[in-house]
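Worked Example 4.2. Consider the chain below.
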Amino acid sequence: MQLDRTIAPDFHAIQGVHFPSLQQSFLDNKQPLYVVNIGQQPVVRVEVLFEAGTWHEQCEGASFFAVKMLSEGTKKRTSIQISEALDQVGAFLELSHTPDRANVVVYGLPKHLPVILAVLTDLLTEASFPEKEFENLRNITLQNLRINLEKNAFVASSTLKGRIFGEKHPYGLSQNEEAIRALKRDDLEDFYEKRIKNRPFRVFLSGQVTDTEVALVNRFLGQHSVVPPPDIHLAPVIQPQPEALWIEKADALQSSIRVGRRLVTRQHPDFYQLVVANELLGGYFGSRLMRNIREEKGFTYGISSSLIPMRRDGYWTIGTDVKKEFLQATLTEIEKEIERLQQDLVPDEELDLVKNYMAGAFAGSLNTPFEIADRVRLIVLEGLDVDFYSNYIQRLRVVSAAEVRYIAQKYWQWGELQQVVVG
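Applying the procedure from the previous section yields the following structure tokens:
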């Protein structure tokens, strides 16, 4: 029978997804181990997380450099030897740093886990912070910062965060050359000693995991003693600067626009309504901002709005780049689209379309065991309900047009939004 290509296939809306159960246990040294056993391929990911972000530093920049320097040498291995040890078994190391925490992640095959964990343990307990490698990293960081400061979009985004939270707040802080140059090797070592070495941590083990892998993690990471970090009692005060800021660059051909405000975390009762309202406004390619400002007006190649929920706080932003002559008109159209959401109910057809898109995008973002494990990890780290992601799609689907209008009225009053323009 020949397929009739003039007839569209049946459409079935995605109603939900199934998340694997999380297995929690404790290593011998009482540190929690979370296991997500999922996947058909023999590959595992070991992720060790420390409360060692910008929130926990006493010297600006120390947390970023301390984490990045972990693989630059230990008392037993040089940076080259660390790389060679991991390369020989096909393992891949990632060192990441956020305002909230530090992540040390290694991907590899289960059969090579003893080698991988030996190197990982070395980084976490015997990092040496060699002076030469520190200077190299400092110079690379300064060079990258200078390049980024020439980009209007980078300056606009980092400036907006500083305007929302305050330039010295951990969520508003941006790298600056003065602080980087003032940093000393001893500052990194001090941060390492206080926040990472023999300090509390959590381990997330995901992929194709058996009791053998769990036992290996305990053998390498569960045997050294762990003591609480010293109290530093940081309580940063949010100091927003509400007035619009325009940073002039005479030679710039385009201007970067950022509009935003402080918002909520994932635990907030309005979170799901905000997610849907944001998607309608600027969260995907068919959003209202894209249809108006890109397709109808031709002011920009792209414009988007984003919710950025974090551990202790969150913010929302609209971002785009336009020619200078379209700058004011673009701001006017952004305000108009927000006002439309505040005044008129979203048609059912448009709301259903957005919800179906969001359901498909969410389901499509769970293609690998590690993408699923990332969601499970977030549930643990942010103290979310165990069914937060299992019921995610259902909770989005029940958001009504009236709730979208309520959200736009409550959170997106134009006079309360902060604006940054660079260009």
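Residues 53 and 98 are 6 Å apart (CA to CA). The longest strand covers residues 314-323. Compare this with Example 4.1 before moving on.
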